[in-house]
Amino acid sequence: MRVGTTRRGAVSSWLLLALAAAYFILPLLALARFSFQRVPVALLGWSNLFERWTWDGLLEALRDPGFGPALWLSVRLALGAIALTLGLLLPTTLWVHLRAPAARGLVEVLSVLPYVVPPIALVVGITGAFRETAPWFIRSDLCLIPIYTLLAMPFTYRALDAGLSAIDLRTLVDASRSLGAGWTTTLFRVLVPNLMSALISSAFLTATIVLGEFTIASLLLKETLPAFNQQLSLRAVQGGFALGLLALLVTTILLALITLLTRRRATTAETATVLAGPAV
Q1: 3-class DSSP state for residue 53?
Q2: What pLDDT was estimated at residue 5?
Q3: Which of 46, 77, 139, 205 fits a disulfide with 155 by CB distance 3.0 to 4.6 angstroms?
């Protein structure tokens, strides 16, 4: 009975995995066909599956004069949002874990609030607050950095919180401080190497939000990559969809590489710890 139950459980797991893969992959295949096959949608079928495939739509999108500035703006926003997010949340999570563990629930609730507030309400509040007091802030393209930091907070805080919960934080800090290291040395030479996986995950989540956010950038009239892609789709449908598919594939490949590197780093660290154990 146990063998049969185990086999049925394995079959069910593989079946669910196959259904989930089909749910995500089949729409992407349909998108790829629509983006790169020059056949009217009404005539798409199995008989012309391999006919008239072309890269022209994607190449037109990449050669568009607005593509370069939009991509560069999104990259700058992503880097700025990553720096601001880690600069704010890493000290906050460290303080909560070390000095105020009772405030952990309150901080978690506060970190979720940006996810609860609709983006349109957030834009209206920001423009209303800064239109008279700091109009230069609204005119600057970099005004999106603190906004994207707020949007990423629900995800990045939990990634950092999980990373801190996975290590013996207090022991590491006490050992470093007892050896005479200051807080800066403890942070960058002791804690950051042990939190590298969480930091990379937080940075990736922030960059993903920046590269995919459209509503706020459009309302503030900022020509980011998603805003450019939407405008491109109005005049060159296949080029816009092809560019969106390319961005999705690049993001997925980066996620896979980051996951592979962090797992390899964790495995190497565990192996070194095991090998060093008997010597200690």
Answers
A1: strand
A2: 62
A3: 205
